[in-house]
Amino acid sequence: MHHCMTWMDRITLFGPLDSAALACIFAVWVVIGWMIENAGSKRPSMSQLMAAHRREWMVQLITRQPRIFDAHILGTLRQSTAFFASTSVIALGGTLALLGNSEQMATVVEDLSLTDLPTIVWEIKMLLPLFFLTNAFLKFVWSNRLFGYCSVLMAAVPNDTQDPRAPKLASKAAEINITAARSFNRGLRSLYFALASLAWLVGPIPLAIAAIVTLIIIWRREFTSESRRILLES
Fold first, then answer.
1. Tens digit of pLDDT for each residue in 65-88?
2. Which of 15, 22, 30, 125 is the most buried (most CB within 10 A)?
3. 209 inside domain
């Protein structure tokens, strides 16, 4: 009962605006991810356009000799996932370190937000970026693993166009490659929202604004960017 009341007391430190801002950032995170991965053929996202090129890549792989070029590209993709996974771990460590020195953090944040709240409030607020960073790390690690699977499948694709196994194995490699890229993009979006979630330290309204700004940035890059226009050119 004591522990229950303690947590109830902590929850009462947050108002309706905090709940609304939290709902906003999670809703935006889920919705933009769904829209990017399920955009219609009339207005495909950047990720969907690149998926088509990944499939074409594996078609060209069948006849390419030697395949050093393909191995280099895949190695670069795996390096990117490893880099961002390491970055996420470092950011997680930094966040946990802040939680360990919450009193100093509270002093700095109180100067920015002009509010005097218990230290536990700032500790709870730091759990939000911690969640997004953890999700990002898991997505990057899985993406790295999938690119590894893709490399094995690519190595198994015969160079003979007459071999009936070649198109099937190339198609499998392409789909695994696309799945790996999808996981990588999810990790990147989690990093974007981890940065946005830091705005909650200033207040719920800044958190909601940061979520909307992040939504606009991701939307622009996926649906209205110059790079997308280039991909759409005939």
1. 888 999 999 999 999 999 999 999
2. 125
3. yes
Distance (Å, rounded) from C-alpha 118 to C-alpha 143? 40
The answer to whether residues 172 and 153 touch, using CB atoms and an 8 Å cutoff, is yes
Nearest alpha carbon to residue 168 among 62, 65, 53: 62
CA–CA distance, 174 with 51 (Å, rounded to integer)? 8
For residues 187 and 120, give the distance between their C-alpha atoms in angstroms, rounded to a whole number: 28
Domain limits at 176?
A: 47-224
In the chain, the amino acid numbered 163 is D
What is the per-residue pLDDT across 109-152, written as a single tens digit (0 to 9) for each?
655 555 666 677 778 888 999 999 999 999 999 999 999 999 99
DSSP label of 102 = H
Residue 7 lies inside a defined structural domain of this protein: no
| DSSP secondary structure letter of residue 198 | G
In a domain, 232, yes or no: no
The DSSP secondary structure of 9-51, one letter per residue, reads: HHHTTS-HHHHHHHHHHHHHHHHHHHHHHT--TTS--HHHHHH
Q: Please tell me the total count of domains within the chain.
A: 1
Say if pTM beats, i.e. exceeds, 0.70.
yes
Q: How many CA atoms lie within 13 A of 171 on its CB side?
A: 5
User: Does a structural domain hold residue 207?
Assistant: yes
